[in-house]
Amino acid sequence: MAKARIVIVDDSPFSIAIIRDILEENGFEVVGEAGSLEEVISVVSEVKPDLVTMDMTIPGTDGLECTRAVHDIDPNIKVIVISSMMDEEILRKARKNKVSGYIQKPADPEEVTLLINRIMASEELYNELTGLYYSCYREAFMDTFNKVAKTIPEFREENNANNGQVSRGISVVIGIIGKYSGRIIFDMSHETSENIAKSVLKREPKSFEEILNVMGELNNIISGQGCSIINRKNKLFGLRVAPPAIFHGESINISKAELDTTTSAIVDTIFGEIYMSVGFQKEDGEWMSNI
């Protein structure tokens, strides 16, 4: 990845010095500074940076107007806000104005570096993700079942077709958030779920609700471990899971995923058959660095 060329926009010489030190110490090239709307337009027009760090409080204007001016010059220039101000209304307006990320002062060097690298590595990073995500979740699935039941599941019918499915009875859907957003689905019959719950609990489940709770937690563990494996390969992904959503009934359909890449498989376990499908969107998922 090429070294990012960055302009710092801030009305405080002290803040500019701090941000410059952070950027240069972490391998970025600072190619300009600005403290007013006029300076922003002049400097950005002249040096055409890859990215601009933007304060929200600028004399005679604000960071949002300056951001719009940057994008009027070149909509491909990324803008991240580094500001002491941060509330829900400002965040909403920043996102509406196509700000790529938001960090609250005092800026943490690791946080700044990680955010900029994530933003600037989008295409390269997404291609890396598409080449490894399925094998990582597959590994997590196999490892978890090996620990739970001392058995290795067998994967078959692995494919990238993005088709709808008729549920076997119980579907656990887990959202994935981070640099890219995605989701993973585990679908199985009531009988398979009950067999798994018996093995995990080492007793008969007390209720159907308990079976659902076991399935939610077990699949949450698989998904979380898969994210951890991916993050160890490249920390820029920053993937983590959202709480599981569980659907069950006699006539549930799993709709075609609105995702850019999807991989599915049928998994044969000693408890019964499980359908697993995981996929991601190409566009950035996580916006703020500290959500």
From TrEMBL:
One GO biological process term: chemotaxis
Pfam family membership, one: Response_reg
UniProt-listed SUPFAM superfamilies: CheC-like (SSF103039), CheY-like (SSF52172)
Highest taxon in the source lineage: Bacteria
Residues with PTM 4-aspartylphosphate: D55
Keywords: Chemotaxis, Phosphoprotein
Residue ranges occupied by any Response regulatory domain in the UniProt entry: 5-120
Family annotation (InterPro entries): CheC-like_sf, CheX-like_dom, CheY-like_superfamily, Sig_transdc_resp-reg_receiver, ST_Response_Regulator
Function: May play the central regulatory role in sporulation. It may be an element of the effector pathway responsible for the activation of sporulation genes in response to nutritional stress. Spo0A may act in concert with spo0H (a sigma factor) to control the expression of some genes that are critical to the sporulation process.
Name of the protein described by the UniProt record: Stage 0 sporulation protein A homolog
Species name: Clostridium manihotivorum
